[in-house]
Specification:
The chain is an all-alpha fold. It is 71% helix and 0% strand.
């Protein structure tokens, strides 16, 4: 008897939870420093990528039955 679990992959869930605070903390750091350095853009980009991947995995990928 096969038992199927319909739940989000751990890594996808972790990335989805880490993305918003990474983006927000870096944005806040930029605003408090009153300057934008390339490393801030890279870190904010990573946060957005994590958020987008989580969204794509949960809502847009083709489910295999």
């Amino acid at each position: 008897m096969e038992h199927r679990h319909d739940h989000t992959n751990f890594l996808v869930d972790l990335l989805g939870r880490l993305g918003p605070p990474i983006f927000a903390a870096t944005l806040l750091g930029c605003l408090l420093e009153d300057r934008l350095v390339p490393s801030h853009l890279i870190i904010m980009g990573i946060g957005v990528i994590f958020i987008a991947f989580h969204h794509w995995y949960n809502f847009h990928r083709i489910q295999k039955s």
